[in-house]
Amino acid sequence: MPDRDPLLDALDADATREAGARFLDLVARYLETTGRGDGPVSTAQSPQDIAARFDGPLPAGGAPLDMVLSRLERQVLDGVTRLVHPMYMGHQVSAPLPATIWTEAVISAVNGSTAVREMSPTANAIEHQLVRWFGTLAGYGPGCGGTLTSGGTEATFTGLLAARAAALPDAWEQGVGADPPVVVYGEQAHYAVTRAIAELGLGLRAGIAIPARDHRLDVGILTATLDRLGREGRAVMAVVATAGSTPVGAFDDLEAIGALCAARGLWLHVDGAHGASALLSAKHRHRVAGIGQARTIAWDPHKMMLLPLAAGLVLAREERDLDQAFAQRAPYLFHGQAGERIWDQGVRSFQCSRRADAIKIWVALERYGADGIGRLYDRLCDTTLLLHQKLGERPDFVTLHLPESNILCFRYVGDGHATPESLDQLNFALRQRYNASGEGWITTTLLGGRRVLRTTIMNPRTGPEHLDRLLAGLARTARELAAGA
Ligand SMILES: Cc1ncc(COP(=O)(O)O)c(C=O)c1O
Known about the structure:
Blueprint: H1 6-14, H2 17-35, H3 47-54, H4 65-76, H5 98-110, H6 121-138, E1 145-149, H7 152-167, H8 171-174, E2 182-186, H9 191-199, E3 207-210, E4 212-213, E5 216-217, H10 219-232, E6 236-242, H11 254-264, E7 268-272, E8 296-299, E9 312-316, H12 319-325, H13 358-392, E10 397-399, E11 407-412, H14 420-436, E12 443-447, E13 450-456, H15 464-482
Parallel strand pairs: 2-3, 2-6, 6-7, 7-8
Antiparallel strand pairs: 1-9, 4-5, 8-9, 10-11, 11-13, 12-13
Helix pairs in contact: 5-13, 6-13, 7-9, 7-12, 13-15, 14-15
Bound molecules: pyridoxal-5'-phosphate.
Residues 92, 151-153, 190, 192, 242, 244-246, 271, 273-274, 300, 312 line the site of pyridoxal-5'-phosphate.
């Protein structure tokens, strides 16, 4: 037996309450200071400057925990975009619910992969219960199934894979052939949809984008397109509707689209990555009325349920649809008896090694309650509506839509005399300079071909005073830019 490696002592020391408390203290200080709005939202340092901090030889020997913690604080935490900051109003990634942040350590401590039940018997049971709860909210019956995913992109891929298995049962063995069925989706759908179409081997030409009307998939054009495809004898693999679109947070008319698909026997997948959480809100639930008509649903708890990354979910009205999607055999892992329901989630899930993210979603529900999380959903939407109102009171900005959720696009127009093209440039530069200032953080997109500013309120601590600061900061920065400063 070789001598005991001193590294084993380091492992023991790092596993103690004292060592853990130091990490915890670091995180708690970050949450407290950033949560109350201290310091900049982001770093103005260039990619090169940040990369230079880590440029060095591979650390072969390791260092004392003190030194590592100090670098973590000074060189990592110091250079992050602070989503917990109330002036962060950027992409659709949350300021996470605190109890779920601490639960991350529990998940990693246990580290059971949820692909196979025997590795994670309790997380597996929790995941199945979450699927039942979420499926029931969506209006599904007891035959429903689902699996957690890394996010909405994987969830939509999985839903469409299930649709492919139904339309082309031989595709797993034989491929999709030269004339695959088409997928029809709204032009404002997330790129997850076209990515899945390509990944599934259908080829992008098998994707048909339906124009939007008022940012929603135009159901009249969808109907005419399905009629035309029928006349041409082209098979439709799936229709994809969006609940909570990425650009403006709009909800497609799921009742009308669901009825259309039901009448024609078409597979409806709803990308509710952003907006399916409206099911938790008494005030906003009506926006997803009809979602239960979908055969599959993508729903990201890491967006509007404010879970930390990663927590995605795909639901299927019939669990067997997911089982058929992945026609996988793996005798070293999955041990179900013929004809018996398999508890292993790996048979209906893209990932093999999978974190037990179910535990943190369960903790969120236990701690804050489904109704509480629904109220937070409302609060994010109310704050966004207030921003819309405040913008409406100013001559130097225009709003571009009434927010249906927590996403709002608007445009700086100054005194109204600039050309649309110069405003495109100004708005683009405005977002860059404003974000670089550390005062706040927003995003931008193209809407109707024009460059616009875009906010997504993902932090329940963002309040009226922060909205005022946002508008004052943007207007001041825009005036500086217009003056050539
Ligand atoms: C409507 C919609 N679908 C899918 C996604 C992708 O989700 P994820 O980033 O979790 O893969 C997003 C992300 O913003 C989205 O807004």
